[in-house]
Amino acid sequence: MRWLLLSLFLTLTTLVSAQNNQLAQQYYRDGEYEKSAELYLALAKEKPGNSFYFDRYVTSLLQLQRYDEAESALKKQLRKRPEEVSLYVKYGQLLEEKFDEEGAKQQYLKAVEELPADQYRITQLANAFIGMTKYEYAILAYEKGAKLLKKEGLFSYNLGDLYRRKGEIEPMISNYLDAIRDQPKRVRQVQTYFQRYLDKDGLLEAQKQLYARIQESGEKDPTYPEMLAWVFIQRKDYKSALRQARALDKRLDEEGERVLGIGRMAANARDYETAIAAFDYITENKNPGGGLYLEAKREGLLTRRRAITDGYDYTREDLKILEAAYEEFLAEFGTNPASARIAMQLAELEAIYLNDLDKAVKLLNDVVETKGVHAKIQAQAKISLADYYLMQGEVWESTLLYSQVDKKFKEDLLGHEARFRNARLSYFRGDFEWAQSQFDVLKASTSRLIANDALDLSVFIMDNLGLDTSALALQTYADAELLVFQNKFDDAFAKLDELKAKFPGHELEDDIVYLKSNIYVKLRRYDEAVAGYQSILDNYPESIRLDNSLWKLAGIYENQLDDKEKAKQLYETLFIDYSGSILAVEARKKYRELRGDAL
């Protein structure tokens, strides 16, 4: 019976204590510090080992400005528990509130001085300082703690965080690098902080420190070389990043995946020389039977093509060298499911750049007829084949292929693309009403590009179809667009001049200027293209070609004329003045990229 009563008493005591704790917290949160002080004092007496209750008791007194009472309680507690160094911090806080800055400083330093060789106590003290945003004392606590525990890098990550909060970049980097040396799993976290807080100078400092550490360690551990390669990438120094990646690939006897990644990043950044060197490293040093060999071959060819064609600064000899590289690849691997995309790229090179449509058609027919080619790749080949048939004037072959893809991929973007091109073919042929009905359907496409192009053509037909009873002007313009599509640029110019002569002052005047400017770009006559696009901006304020003209003009200034400031200004105008355009989002990205923002 006695044990039962004792058990009941203990249970009731525990319940009362828990209720008092919850009530004290509620009073504290509500700012009723008189009541919270009373309850926390009772709880602290009941459980003298729980420092939280005593801390809340003193904090409540400080809120009430009962400084003498708080100081008396702290001194008494320090006599009882001198090892509890967080009490000195609370004492310092009290002195600060009494405007005794020197006395507070002495208490904070005393807390660090009395620190025991106990990791929990060290962390507790540092957290107490951090809670008061006194980062310099938290740093002292961690540095003293590491010495006491004789573990030099134990608190490196914490110290990195503190220096980051203080904005001291050099020691922040140093401590974070110490942390990843001892805990490589923290690399991603440190990289995130570096991305967020380091500017160009900060990344340069990180590079300098990493070089020093690699020389000191003799590159035994890959952690720092890997981090250095990452820093090079952030600085867009892909050449140096590739050098590190190749060294790591050889030392760790890897398959080349790291190098392939650098190559792709360099290619996306248009550092084609570095990208090609990366892909060539794999094809020259890895087993042809390996998983990355064929991928590197493909990427290398595509990058060589982009290096030649992206800036439109190439000769026929350059194109023939690239053609030979493609043909060498197909001779080595043949036309099969794995090489189908390469054959399609070569077909594009032949049709668009070398004007050998017969060869392009043969290559694509081989892809279409090859067994095992993925259905979507085969469909893409059919769309391109239909384009080339149209360029040859084979209208029925073209529309048949577009229709096949449309039927097989009706709800897929490939089907939408084929349907759009089939509708455009009808537009070329003068079947304007049927073409417009198809464009109206495609305005709801999930592809924003297809939807936008369909909307543009639908509005264009609607605006111009009723201007004359025979629709002769619109047909003449459509004929000119088909000639441009077929790369018959002289004939297209002649057709546009004929249109202007027959219909002076026609609503199509701005469209004529726009189409001529597009031809000038294809011919690499950039000054004439710029003049044309600028003419639309200056002279046709109601033109539906305004946003496209701004976009193309900005692209020429950025990529061909190397006037980044002018390009940035044009991109800004596009996303501000034409925010409803589909090009506005891309223009904002381009603007931020040219401004140097981290994207």
Poorly predicted runs? 3-16
Please outline the major beta sheet. none
- In terms of structural class, how would the helical and strand content be classed? mainly alpha
The chain-level mean pLDDT equals 88
Oligomer classification = single chain
Query: What percent strand?
Result: under 5%
Taking the alpha carbons of the first and last residues, their distance comes to 74 Å
Overall spatial form: elongated
User: Whole-number radius of gyration?
Assistant: 36 Å
Helix share of residues? over 70%
Helix count, DSSP H or I runs of 4 or more residues: 32
Strand tally is 0
Descriptive report:
The chain has 599 residues and is an all-alpha fold. 78% of the residues lie in helices and 0% in strands. Helix 21 runs parallel beside helix 23. The radius of gyration is 36 Å and the shape is elongated.
Features of the shown structure:
599 residues, mainly alpha, 0% strand, disordered N terminus
Describe the secondary structure blueprint for this structure.
Blueprint: H1 2-29, H2 33-46, H3 51-63, H4 67-80, H5 86-97, H6 101-113, H7 119-131, H8 135-149, H9 156-166, H10 169-182, H11 187-197, H12 200-217, H13 223-234, H14 238-251, H15 257-268, H16 272-285, H17 293-309, H18 316-333, H19 340-353, H20 357-369, H21 375-392, H22 395-408, H23 413-429, H24 432-442, H25 448-465, H26 472-485, H27 489-502, H28 509-522, H29 526-539, H30 546-559, H31 564-577, H32 583-595
Helix pairs in contact: 1-2, 2-3, 3-4, 3-5, 4-5, 5-6, 6-8, 7-8, 8-9, 9-10, 10-12, 12-13, 13-14, 14-15, 14-16, 15-16, 16-17, 17-18, 18-19, 19-20, 19-21, 20-21, 21-22, 21-23, 22-23, 23-24, 24-25, 26-27, 27-28, 28-29, 29-30, 30-31, 31-32
